[in-house]
Amino acid sequence: MMILGLVRWMQPVHGYDVRRELLSWSADKWANVQPGSIYHALRKLTDEGLLRAVSTEQVGARPARTTYEVTAKGVDEFESLLRAQWWQLHEVPDPFVAAFSFLPAMPRDEAAAALRNRANLIRAGIESMRASLESDWVRNSKPVHVGWMFELWLARAEADMAWCGRIAERIESGVSYLPASIEQAAEWSEWKGRAAARDNNAK
């Protein structure tokens, strides 16, 4: 979607300029668009009939550059992908959630410390985003709606950071993680015993 949209916006356009524009948006960080995959994606979209190669030219010893335009089929595909993202809710897999589901396997002290460290890392990211909004933003005349995206990221990051602090406090308070029926199960008692032994060894 990102590449189709940019070609449609900038056409006719070289792959180099598409890559440069995406990197200027930091799309490699928030849209999972890897710089090394952009030229491959352009060729693949061309093979699928979504883009057309208008011309290829070479200046001196520089690598040849192909100019692209979007086809009518590509316009339809872009608009379909665009609306799918606007009108549907997509959950992004987060490895941390998978790890957090095994919270009882972590010693309490380590789990609380890890959450506080996560909060500190998020805080550093928030400060970096705010610095971008306050300085680089105006200098580079970024579109207003991109600033609104930063507001969304900041709100999510602040909520995540606050959650880490709350859960760390609950863990440190000694609150039980599991319902009584699971707490009393033989399997859990054995697991808890091993975890307690690790805690004692760590101390």
List keywords for this structure.
2 domains, 7% strand, Arc Repressor Mutant, subunit A, 3 strands, 3-stranded antiparallel sheet, mainly alpha, 203 residues
Structure description:
By secondary structure, the chain is mainly α. The chain has two domains: 2-87, Arc Repressor Mutant, subunit A (Orthogonal Bundle), CATH 1.10.10; 95-202. It has ten helices and three strands, in the order αβαααββαααααα. The chain has helices at 2-10, 15-24, 27-30, 38-47, 72-87, 95-100, 108-140, 144-172, 180-183, 186-202, and strands at residues 13-14, 51-57, 65-70. The protein has a three-stranded antiparallel β-sheet. α7 packs antiparallel against α8. The mean pLDDT is 81.
Q: Short summary of the structure?
A:
The protein folds into 2 domains: 2-87, Winged helix-like DNA-binding domain superfamily/Winged helix DNA-binding domain (Arc Repressor Mutant, subunit A, Orthogonal Bundle), CATH 1.10.10; 95-202. It has 10 helices and 3 strands.
